[in-house]
Amino acid sequence: AQSVAQPEDQVNVAEGNPLTVKCTYSVSGNPYLFWYVQYPNRGLQFLLKYITGDNLVKGSYGFEAEFNKSQTSFHLKKPSALVSDSALYFCAVRDWTGGYNKLIFGAGTRLAVHP
Amino acid sequence: SAVISQKPSRDICQRGTSLTIQCQVDSQVTMMFWYRQQPGQSLTLIATANQGSEATYESGFVIDKFPISRPNLTFSTLTVSNMSPEDSSIYLCSVIGTSGGTGEQYFGPGTRLTVT
């Protein structure tokens, strides 16, 4: 079965510094990978996805992610963090097992950006 | 993108009772999903609901406890039956956009359920 792992429960970054939220995946076949963000008391919002093509994917709110096949990673990055980026971030992979199409989520990483 | 609304947004229920959560989408979609999320935790898929067929439940979830209806391509309901405090959670409806499997999945705002 497909799965993703987010090794860090929390990431702390100072405002203005670059940020990285890590994600590794385990899939059979080509991975369809996604990042979502959840702000407090709000639903999940789609940030970006990797399906095929360029390994560097750009998404919403200045975020980008780099797909690395050899390291089976799909880390989320932003060059300069904002306090407003503080939220819960989820990496996810599309699972086609059993003929059904579903999204499998990682455990989530809480990003805290300090002024 | 798809806009999803859920009703109710939150509820407090007594154990032993049932609650039906409604999910309405602003466009026709083939696949709808129901997830459960403990606050601050990851999302767990309960079931996939396709119009015109029985819902497909994930391991650990059964139809008697979480019956699902999918009468058309824009609407679904999830019922949490015979509730216990362990059912306290956020329940989210989700759909895949028009791009199908390669497209992003959209989520409703969630229904926050507290069982006392």
In short:
Chain A has 115 residues and is mainly β. Helices cover 0% and strands 52% of the residues of chain A.
Overview of this protein structure:
The complex is a heterodimer of chains A (115) and B (116). With 115 residues, chain A is an all-beta fold. Chain A contains no helices and twelve strands. Chain A has strands at 3-5, 10-14, 19-21, 24-26, 33-38, 44-50, 56-58, 64-68, 73-78, 87-95, 102-105, 109-114. In chain A, strands 2, 5, 6, 10, 11 and 12 form a six-stranded mixed sheet that branches. By secondary structure, chain B is an all-beta fold. In chain B, the strands form two sheets. In chain B, strands 2, 4, 5, 6, 9, 10 and 11 form a seven-stranded mixed sheet that branches. A four-stranded antiparallel sheet of chain B has the order 1-3-8-7, with no helix packed on it.
Number of helices of chain A: 0
* Assembly state of the chains shown: heterodimer
What's the total count of β strands of chain B? Answer: 11
Task: Count the DSSP helices of chain B.
Answer: 0
**Largest sheet features of chain A:** 6 strands, mixed
Any idea what the shape of chain A is?
Answer: globular
Cα-atom radius of gyration of chain A: 14 Å
> What low-confidence regions of chain B span 5 or more consecutive residues with pLDDT below 50?
none
Give the strand content of chain A: over 45%
Biggest sheet layout of chain B: 7 strands, mixed
Alpha-carbon distance between the termini of chain B? 37 Å
Instruction: Tell me the series of helices and strands of chain B, N- to C-terminal.
Output: EEEEEEEEEEE
